[in-house]
Design a protein that fits this description.
Layout (H helix, E strand, L loop, with lengths): L14 E7 L2 E7 L11 H9 L9 E4 L5 H10 L3 E5 L2 H13 L4 E5 L10 E6 L7 H10 L4 E12 L4 H8 L4 E8 L2 E7 L2
Parallel strand pairs: 3-4, 3-6, 4-5, 6-7
Antiparallel strand pairs: 1-2, 7-9, 8-9
Length: 194
């Protein structure tokens, strides 16, 4: 079975869905071979509903943007440009289309983990691709430190069935960690770079 972290050729079946996140209506083109292709997934919604929006000052990276709901929402909510990265070419293409569709201000580019990221961010926000395996996942989470400013924050959402408790313990070796919210098994985790 193919996975959205790869760039396998999967037959296209493009559709559109609408969603409302904290009062903001967003339309999203979606397709086969991308994460959460039929609706906004519960983990991403939980993450966005529990971000401390008033504190999101400075520049922001949406890591593993998929079709773009996190970065597009943040751009519209904060009225600022958001950098967005993914490894999946179809996701990047859809995220760009969705950014235009929603009149969001974004800078979207392809990157394998952080290889094309060349600046530091005040916030990195992600619903990380848990199924890629621990080696890649921990690279994503721990190397974020090198791309965060001092006191910059990594915000992620992880399901307890996918190792949220273990991941939280490992993150505590690198960051000041707070579990901001638990919702139906999903943990919203804030990691401060100290």
């Amino acid at each position: 079975m193919s996975h959205y972290f790869t760039n396998d050729k999967i037959k296209s079946n493009k559709k559109i869905y609408c969603t409302n996140i904290c009062g903001i209506n967003i339309k999203l083109y979606t397709d086969n071979g991308v994460f959460s292709k039929s609706k906004l997934d519960f983990g991403t919604r939980t993450l966005l509903e529990n971000l401390e929006i008033q504190n999101l000052k400075g520049n922001i990276l949406d890591f593993g943007c998929g079709i773009g709901p996190i970065g597009i929402y943040l751009s519209l909510k904060l009225n600022k440009e958001i950098d967005m990265i993914d490894i999946n070419k179809r996701s990047i293409s859809l995220a760009k289309e969705n950014s235009i569709l929603n009149s969001a201000k974004t800078n979207i580019f392809e990157s394998n983990i952080y290889e094309n990221v060349n600046k530091k961010y005040d916030f990195i926000i992600s619903n990380p691709p848990i199924r890629v395996g621990n080696d890649v996942l921990y690279k994503i989470l721990f190397e974020a430190k090198e791309h965060l400013t001092k006191n910059g924050e990594l915000w992620i959402v992880v399901n307890k069935d996918q190792g949220a408790k273990t991941i939280t313990k490992k993150l505590e070796q690198f960051y000041i960690v707070t579990i901001v919210k638990k919702n139906k098994g999903f943990y919203v985790i804030r990691c401060i770079n100290h």
